[in-house]
């Protein structure tokens, strides 16, 4: 019984050690830091108003299909911020 407990303890500590070293990063590298992604979302500045044509038909969830006259909806993919401008 005591041998089984020791084996379990050694196994648990070994597994824990492997998990901790796996998340450790990996040492130094000569590669440069990746650049942050460039956002195309509009920015908000108090008192500054862009032309409405930048925001027209930009919807967080654009419609698909056609309107009652058979014309395709003009919606384009946007975001919450576009939709609320």
Could you explain how this protein is built, in words?
The protein has 85 residues and is mainly alpha-helical. Helix content is 31%, strand content 5%.
The description of the largest β-sheet is: 2 strands, parallel
Strand element count? 2
User: What characteristic shape results from the CA principal axes?
Assistant: elongated
Poorly predicted ranges: none
Task: Write out the strand line-up for the largest beta sheet, numbering strands in chain order.
Answer: 1-2
* Total number of helices: 2
Give the ordered list of helices and strands.
Answer: HEEH
- Structural class call reads mainly alpha
What is the radius of gyration? 28 Å
Please give the share of residues in helix.
Answer: 25-40%
Tell me the distance between the termini.
70 Å
- What is the overall pLDDT average? 75
Strand proportion, as a percent range, falls in: under 5%
List the keywords.
85 residues; mainly alpha; 2 helices; 2 strands; elongated
């Amino acid at each position: 019984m005591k041998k089984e407990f020791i084996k379990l303890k050694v196994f648990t500590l070994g597994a824990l050690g492997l998990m901790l070293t796996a998340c450790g990063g990996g040492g130094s590298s000569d590669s440069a830091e990746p650049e942050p992604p460039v956002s195309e979302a509009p920015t908000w500045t108090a008192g500054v108003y862009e032309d409405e044509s930048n925001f027209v038909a930009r919807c967080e969830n654009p419609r698909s299909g056609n309107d009652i006259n058979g014309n395709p909806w003009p919606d384009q993919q946007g975001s919450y911020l576009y939709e609320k401008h």
